Amino acid sequence: METITPAALKAELDSGKELLVLDVREEHELANGAIPGHVHVRMAQVPHSLDKLPKDADIVVVCRTGNRSGQVATFLVRQGYAKVRNLEGGMNGYARDVDSSMSEY
């Protein structure tokens, strides 16, 4: 599974690169901050929501620390998704390295 750093993700987003940021956290976790334009599908619902995720999309999966998103990224690759990356350090890393207006938790 490929990974992407928070800084590299921010650079890709700022460049206008077309990405599908898949946030697999629980609903209550989104209050800590989220990447604008993300698609929210709780981890448990991903297997039932594949129709929301185009197979040709460049997908970056995010969660709080990168563990759950890593599991989802591996699952998506096994389902035939070719362009899937996991955000290193998750949203806590993104908050720490990129967007201090978000809170680590």
The 3D shape can be described as: globular
Task: Evaluate the radius of gyration.
Answer: 12 Å
Number of helices: 3
Tell me the quaternary state.
single chain
Side by side, the strands of the main sheet go 1-5-4-2-3
Strand content bin: 15-25%
Going by helix content, strand content and strand pairing, the class is alpha/beta
Distance between the termini: 25 Å
The number of distinct β-strands equals 5
Mean pLDDT comes to 97
Question: How would you sum up the major sheet?
Answer: 5 strands, parallel
- Point out poorly predicted stretches: none
Helix percentage: 25-40%
Query: Which sequence of SSEs, written as H and E, runs from N to C?
Result: EHEEEHEH
What do these coordinates show?
With 105 residues, this protein is an alpha/beta fold. It is built from 3 helices and 5 strands, in the order βαβββαβα. The chain has helices spanning 6-14, 67-78, 90-97; strands at residues 2-4, 20-23, 39-40, 59-62, 84-87. Strands 1-5-4-2-3 form a 5-stranded parallel β-sheet. The termini are far apart. The mean pLDDT is 97.
Element layout with pairings:
Blueprint: E1 2-4, H1 6-14, E2 20-23, E3 39-40, E4 59-62, H2 67-78, E5 84-87, H3 90-97
Parallel strand pairs: 1-5, 2-3, 2-4, 4-5
Give a short synopsis of this structure.
With 105 residues, the chain is α/β, with parallel strands linked by helices. It has helices spanning 6-14, 67-78, 90-97, and strands at 2-4, 20-23, 39-40, 59-62, 84-87.
